[in-house]
């Protein structure tokens, strides 16, 4: 099943293309602006200059680098690959320097482009490198993890981590195209697939009640082989559409877009404090959603039955619902104050009101946060 989801923005609209086998048509789509069975666009997608820099990690490149480069070269592009280590702890300015160095060596021009072939880490770094090279060149996102497909590759948020917090250094830089080929999920590790499901659950809670209910009705979705083709298509299309709708309404996170951070306030603190090694992003977001749900319940904003329904989905995905063992709550409280979403010294939480609706609040009592974090501490 193929679909095209437009992200409509004032200055740079683009398509999210979901197409099994689409990786083989990456080159033609960039060069001609159309592709098999998807119909023509209003104009060329990108038409970048002949020089492309393709950034990936060793595992992804081993599986898909050759086919991506072959497609691009057959379309007439000159491709320079750069392989960076996998993992959130490598999302640093040092990695950005490596991308910039190769861009300089290959004499990338303002008409050139960078291609991100990988998960969220590769997408974030490549997008930031593109945003800052020659004051901004094109970036094409080709996500290979479920989490990147439904979230990280869409919306133009790019950046790297600072030693004191996640994604504190970054820029908004929209891609020219997001190409999602679901067949690449066949090689995705089970743990990474579950991490992506965490973000899908997020969309169900904050925006898309039918998606939430479809997950409730599914017998299993803790690994890809337990997910039917129809459910996977729904997870991809509904999540991408939700992200597209929110980004179109609020590109630079001046208001509505902040709801996409549901679970991320506590989640980012957990990631940072565990050195990006003990839990991955999706697992941290799952823990953060549990915390935010309980905070909303204690504030009388969310019914206990809805909190339990969310808990069941997170557990069905085999995601964690408690803080990692040994994590100090005092340290979490300090890390929350360093979160990039803090305004006027107040920590902002995304809180659900009902399944399919959420809002942002800076009126959460720090004592309540500590109370909830204590409740979800590992025994």
UniProtKB/TrEMBL annotation:
Gene3D superfamilies reported for this sequence: 3.40.50.1970, Dehydroquinate synthase-like - alpha domain
Residues binding NAD(+), per UniProt: 120-124, 144-145, 157, 166
Residue span(s) of domain 3-dehydroquinate synthase N-terminal: 83-194
Keyword Repeat: no
Binding site for Zn(2+): 199, 264, 281
Free-text comment on the cofactor: Binds 1 divalent metal cation per subunit. Can use either Co(2+) or Zn(2+).
Swiss-Prot/TrEMBL cofactor(s): Co(2+); Zn(2+); NAD(+)
SUPFAM superfamilies according to UniProt: Dehydroquinate synthase-like (SSF56796)
Enzyme Commission number(s): 4.2.3.4
UniProt subcellular location: Cytoplasm
Residue ranges of domain 3-dehydroquinate synthase C-terminal in the record: 196-342
Keywords in alphabetical order: Amino-acid biosynthesis, Aromatic amino acid biosynthesis, Cobalt, Cytoplasm, Lyase, Metal-binding, NAD, Nucleotide-binding, Zinc
A GO term for molecular function: 3-dehydroquinate synthase activity
GO BP term (any one): aromatic amino acid family biosynthetic process
Cellular component annotations (GO), alphabetically ordered: cytoplasm
Family: Belongs to the sugar phosphate cyclases superfamily. Dehydroquinate synthase family.
Alphabetized NCBIfam families for the sequence: aroB
Role, per record: Catalyzes the conversion of 3-deoxy-D-arabino-heptulosonate 7-phosphate (DAHP) to dehydroquinate (DHQ).
Name assigned to this protein: 3-dehydroquinate synthase
Organism: Vasconcelosia minhoensis LEGE 07310
Gene: aroB
């Amino acid at each position: 099943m193929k679909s095209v989801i437009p992200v409509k923005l004032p200055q740079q609209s683009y398509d999210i293309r979901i197409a099994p086998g689409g990786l083989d048509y990456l080159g033609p789509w960039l060069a001609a602006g159309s592709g098999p069975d998807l119909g023509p666009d209003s104009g060329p997608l990108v038409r970048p200059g002949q020089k492309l820099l393709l950034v990936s990690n060793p595992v992804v490149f081993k599986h898909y680098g050759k086919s991506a480069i072959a497609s691009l070269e057959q379309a007439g592009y000159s491709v320079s690959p750069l392989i960076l280590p996998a993992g959130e702890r490598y999302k640093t300015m040092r990695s950005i320097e490596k991308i910039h160095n190769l861009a300089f060596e290959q004499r990338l021009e303002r008409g050139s482009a960078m291609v991100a072939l990988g998960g969220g880490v590769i997408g974030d770094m490549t997008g930031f490198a593109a945003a800052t090279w020659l004051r901004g060149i094109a970036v094409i996102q080709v996500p290979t993890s479920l989490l990147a497909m439904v979230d990280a590759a869409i919306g133009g948020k790019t950046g790297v981590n600072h030693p004191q917090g996640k994604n504190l250094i970054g820029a908004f830089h929209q891609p020219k195209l997001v190409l999602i080929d679901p067949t690449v999920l066949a090689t995705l590790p089970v743990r990474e697939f579950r991490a992506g499901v965490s973000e899908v659950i997020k969309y169900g809670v904050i925006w898309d009640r039918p998606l939430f209910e479809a997950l409730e009705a599914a017998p299993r979705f803790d690994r890809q082989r337990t997910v039917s083709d129809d459910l996977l298509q729904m997870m991809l299309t509904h999540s991408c559409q939700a992200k597209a709708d929110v980004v179109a309404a609020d590109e630079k996170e001046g208001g509505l877009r902040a709801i996409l951070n549901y679970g991320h306030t506590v989640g980012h603190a957990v990631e940072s404090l565990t050195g990006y090694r003990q839990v991955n992003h999706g697992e941290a977001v799952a823990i953060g959603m549990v915390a935010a749900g309980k905070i909303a319940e204690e504030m009388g904003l969310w019914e206990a039955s809805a909190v339990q329904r969310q808990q069941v989905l997170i557990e069905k995905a085999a995601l964690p619902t408690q803080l990692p063992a040994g994590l100090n709550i005092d340290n979490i409280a300090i890390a929350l104050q360093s979160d990039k979403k803090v305004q006027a010294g107040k920590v902002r939480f995304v809180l659900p009101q009902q399944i399919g609706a959420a809002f942002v609040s800076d009126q959460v009592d720090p004592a309540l946060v500590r109370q909830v974090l204590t409740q979800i501490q590992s025994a």
